[in-house]
Every structure is written in structure tokens, then in C-alpha cells.
Amino acid sequence: MKLHHISLPAILFLIGPATLPADTGLAESEEALRAKITDTVSATNLSRKAIESLIRSSVQSSVSAALTGLTEKAAIGEAAKGLGVAASSAAPLFAEEIIDAIITLPSIVEVEGLGAEIALAIRSRLAALQQESEVAEAKPGSRHHKSGKHHGGKRGEAIVSPATVKPTPTPITVTIQTK
User: Fold this and answer.
1) Whole-angstrom Cα distance, residue 27 to residue 56?
2) Shortest CA distance to 62 belongs to which of 18, 115, 98, 112?
3) 22: pLDDT confidence band, cut at 50, 70 and 90?
4) Which among 38, 57, 63, 122 is placed 20 to 30 Å from 14, CA to CA?
5) Is 152's pLDDT higher than 60?
């Protein structure tokens, strides 16, 4: 019997991409979906109903493609969550439509409890992203910080609301002339 030494890349090439881990292209799929959703939302000539329909179609086709060949609940859940977070972060105003598009897919519906798990994960991540954004807006020096020239102050100066300033009494002198 003769032994042959074959490198791992050669084995992977011979086996083919169908047996590689499912998440090898997930990041690319997430980025492509995010870009597609961003383009759809920024289309000014579409009604909200048309945008919802396009988003639903894009999300369902991307998630269905990513789930092809997956059989384990964990792998299905992670792929669907990743794509759902990517889509909803690109269009937070359409998050509920995105969640609905994902959890109504047959491959999600057939796994008990997975739809609720995915919906919760997407909503939680979206809330965390929103909170991070609010913290960034409050940080001095951030591009979202609410101080600087546009508010009349210089960088580093405290902006005081007129409601917090207590008026100091100013004496008034009145002179009355009589004839």
C-alpha cells in the first residue's frame, strides 16, 4: 500500500465548497444585504409599501440562500440572526418588516422556537446599536456631539441652557419729574 501526502488546501479543493462551514461567506452575504437594503431605502421615488416589499424580498432571498444546506438549529439561527441584524441596522425603521420576513420562512418556521429566538436577537442587537449611537452622540469630540460652532460655543466650552441660569436682580432707578 502506497501512502500519498495531500495538503489540506488540496483536500478542500477536491471536496468542494458544499462541505465547507456554512459561515465562510456569511460576512460577505451580510455586507451585500446591508448594501442592497441601504440602496432600497434611499430610493426617493418609491412609496413605503414598495420599499417594504423590496426589503422583504431581498431579506427572504438572502436568508434562504444562506440557509441552503444547513440542518442544525444553531447554524440556521446564527445565519438568520446575522443577516437580520445586517438588514435591520441598514434600515432600522423597517426592522419589524425584516424580522417578519425572516421568521415566516419555512426553514425557520419548521424549527420550534427559532423564530422567537431570532426576533429577540435582532431586536436586542438593534437596541444595543441604538444605545451605542446615543453614547457616541454624547461624547465630546465625536462627530455627533451636540456642541461646537453650530450651538454657539467653542470646543470644550459648556453650553448652558437659559432655563438653568438664574436671573440676578438688577436695580432699576426711576426718575419722576413733576411740574
Assistant:
1) 20
2) 98
3) very low
4) 63
5) no
